[in-house]
Amino acid sequence: MNIKSKIGQRIRALRLQKGISQEQLALKAELDRTYMTSVENGKRNISIQNIEKIIKALETTFEEFFKGFDLIV
Amino acid sequence: MNIKSKIGQRIRALRLQKGISQEQLALKAELDRTYMTSVENGKRNISIQNIEKIIKALETTFEEFFKGFDLIV
Fold first, then answer.
1. A17-24 long-range Cβ contacts below 8 angstroms, 24+ apart
2. Which residues are CB-neighbours of A48 under 8 A, at least 6 positions away?
3. Quick one: pLDDT at residue A72?
4. Can you give the CATH number for the domain in which A37 is found?
5. Is pLDDT above 80 for A64?
6. Which residues of B touch A68 (CB under 8 A)?
7. Which residues span the domain enclosing A15?
8. Distance between CA atoms of A64 and B69, rounded to whole angstroms?
9. Where is the HTH cro/C1-type domain (chains A, B) (predicted)?
């Protein structure tokens, strides 16, 4: 799986764990909702600043976010 | 410290641990040397694809790269 899809899958899994919608996550992360949808669908070569916004909105850490990340295939 | 500087500092620390130069890392990561310099200097809102190239060139993993990352201040 390419890196854009891996990131999207990870964000979606954590978002669903928190029980919030894409719209709620986009609002909290101060990102556009359609952009958030495209990130989750693995369509975006997302920047580190936007990753940080999403990680903060998910109330997690970089360490947690990337734990086991390399095992996603 | 802002996220761009944190990423740059982390890359530099791991590169120095491996004992390779910016030029060698840039070559291995198939990235431009001056771009690599600006990333290490915290000047770039680096994309996930370029982070992946650098992590692979450093022969580490996302999990290792971001371990303790949130503690960098």
1. A18/A58, A18/A59
2. B3, B4, B7, B45, B46, B47, B48, B51
3. 86
4. 1.10.260.40
5. yes
6. 63
7. 3-71
8. 10
9. 11-65
Would residue B73 count as lying in a domain? no
Q: SS3 helix, strand, coil % of chain B, rounded to 5? A: 65, 0, 30
Q: Do A48 and B47 touch (CB under 8 A)?
A: yes
Token duo for residue B29: 């990561």
**Cα–Cα distance list, A1 to A8, A20, A70, A72 (Å):** 11, 25, 11, 8
Tell whether ipTM is more than 0.90: yes
φ, ψ for residue A51, nearest 5 deg: -60, -45
Using an 8 Å CB-CB cutoff, list chain B residues near A1. Answer: none
In B1-60, the residues whose Cβ lies within 8 Å of chain A are 3-4, 7, 45-49, 51-52
At residue B73, the pLDDT reads: 77
**Chain A to chain B, count of Cβ pairs less than 8 Å apart?**
51
Nearest CA in chain B to A60: B70
CB atoms within 10 A of CB B21: 12
